[in-house]
Amino acid sequence: MELERLRAAFPALQETALERLSFYGDFLAGYNQKVNLTAITDPEGILVKHFEDSLALLPYLPEEKTISLADVGTGAGFPGVVLLIARPDLSLTLIEATEKKLRFLELLLSHLSLSAQLCHRRAEEAGRDPAFREAFDAVSARAVASLPVLSEYCLPLVKPGGRFLAMKSMLAQKELADSRRAIALLGAETEKQIDYRLSNGDARSLIVIKKISQISSKYPRPTSVILKRPL
Ligand code: SAM
Fold first, then answer.
1. Run of H or E including 206
2. Model pTM?
């Protein structure tokens, strides 16, 4: 992936970060020929739909201290690995249910000389484990599940006072309306919704949900129940 193009797209990033993104783009496209990780494989698509979209989260991560971020259903590393490239001080945990994606992430991070905790589990299982429950300053997720379901996957992982950053596309407004009860039951409240456009014109929404209080021991429920009866 051309460094010049990356420099023009992300002028605020340092050269090391741009070099890492360049490697990431090439490595993802090459690996994807053997193992299906993403439908977007052309360099411009990776730059805009994966890198630019992931970086849209950057202003919503607190800057003042090393923060712990869990990226749920990270897939080939979006937005988590891109955020780590931009903010190598992040304490990042990548939670992903599919093993082949973790193998890719392990190799990628080793080539990039970056480290993150890799967690091969479903988020809602991690949310019942004391080591992960209410352990993170921020939890992100993009393209994993509808917001009522995703809230029960992600909010148990967020510390009281921390934030859940849900990256959504067109249906954000409707999903948010359908999630009000779930968000309240999970001890949280919606802080804001930010609508933005990628440089190719695609509409996106970021929903910022603040965890207010400790979560009831009832949640998260088993996966089948979450899916059958969303809160
Ligand atoms: N976040 C990435 C992105 O935006 O490119 C990947 C999106 S992909 C459509 C959804 C990913 O979420 C898949 O890799 C899937 O294995 C993972 N996933 C779905 N439900 C999950 C859960 N409950 N816990 C952990 N991972 C999950």
1. strand 203-211
2. 0.97
3-state secondary structure of 51: helix
Q: Specify the number of domains making up the chain.
A: 1
Q: Is 94 in the pocket of ligand 1 (CB under 6 A)?
A: no
Cα(97) to centroid of ligand 1, in Å?
7
Share of the chain above pLDDT 70, in %: 100
Contact 35 CB / ligand 1 (< 6 Å): no
Tell whether 36 is covered by a domain: no
Domain that holds residue 92: 46-228
User: Which has the closest alpha carbon to 50: 198, 170, 163?
Assistant: 198
Closest-CA residue, ligand 1 atom 26, reads 73
User: In sequence order, what are the beta bridge partners of 211?
Assistant: 188
CB atoms within 10 A of CB 84: 24
- Residues in Cβ contact with 166 at an 8 Å cutoff, skipping those fewer than 6 apart: 140, 141, 147, 150, 151, 154, 206, 207, 209
Choosing from 104, 144, 150, 168 the residue with most ligand 1 atoms within 8 A of its CB, the one to mutate for a pocket test is 144
pLDDT tens per residue across span 44-78? 999 999 999 999 999 999 887 789 999 999 999 99
Residue 175 and residue 147 in contact, taking contact as beta carbons nearer than 8 Å: yes
Return the SS3 of 120. Answer: coil
Q: What is the residue-averaged pLDDT of the chain? A: 96
Q: Is residue 34 part of a domain?
A: no
Report the separation in Å between the CA atom of 4 and the middle of ligand 1, taken as the mean of its atom positions.
Answer: 31
